User: Fold these one by one.
Assistant:
Number 1:
Amino acid sequence: MRRGKASRRHGKWARARAEIRVKQWFGFVPDFIITLDAEYCRACGDAEFMGLVKHGLYHAAQETDAFGAPKFSRSTGRPVFTADITWKSSSALFAAMAQMQLVSARS
């Protein structure tokens, strides 16, 4: 059974409640949950939807060690994941936005 962690932005009780809720929904806590706005998803086209999902997946990352190599858990051997929610620079943000526009323009 795969096991992830609830968001670190919550307190202990809120994190525990969120983890219980996710276990009830999926039967386990996945490594990542990408939350999408249903109203936007219904209104956008296929290319915009795929761009949105791809953008969300860009935030899913494997942690790296001090040498920049992928990090693995000593106890389980599984990859250690992190949610990269910060942009290294504004140019990276604009590049991602431009890429989404290119995907949108191709439809």
Number 2:
Amino acid sequence: MNYYKVLISCGHVGNSKEITIARYFKAKNTIEAFESGNRMPRAKENIRTHRFCL
């Protein structure tokens, strides 16, 4: 298992505004880390283009 840094767009900061936060996930591959980022609380639901830093 590897550690992955995922940049997640978060909401609840105003209309059409977002903040980007970094979260670290321990996962088997990048797909699993990406899916974990999508399930995070406050993650924007309509944006599925989170960024990775390997």
Number 3:
Amino acid sequence: MDASRDDAGNDLATQAVGTIRNGLHVDLRWILLHLTEETARHSGHLDILREMLDGTTGG
């Protein structure tokens, strides 16, 4: 069972490669990190808007 799990992880790492708009080749790790960064950035924007609406700051 462990060997099949290792094989699946290796297959995913080699197959999950793509090219984005500027020609940069990216893998699944890069994509997940980018999505995490974008989610955090947009959450920060929403927090600023909430603070502007209700006047409270912090958490």
Number 4:
Amino acid sequence: MLQDENRHRRVECGAAVLILCDGLSAHWGKTGNGRSLAYVMLLAPLSYSTFAFINTRLNLAVTGALVNTIVVVGAALVGTFVFKEQLSSMQYLGIVLAVISMTLLHLD
């Protein structure tokens, strides 16, 4: 039980790294801010290492889906809270369905 909790915490920390890298990349893309680009370049190896780390804990299909879902949700959060973009009802539904799909993939 404790091992499962530790595994989930590590995956959650990895998810946070991926969201951070995606958010910085989006910030650089939207603003052209050189500092954001520098952070992205420094954090990119960490992001790929995080993907590899998560892949050692889960199978590749689940890892790929998890990382892609994290990127989508992270981008939506950054767009909404940082850039004040509005999501449509269908976009919210898509995000909810993505999270539900990840939950279903995670069930053993």
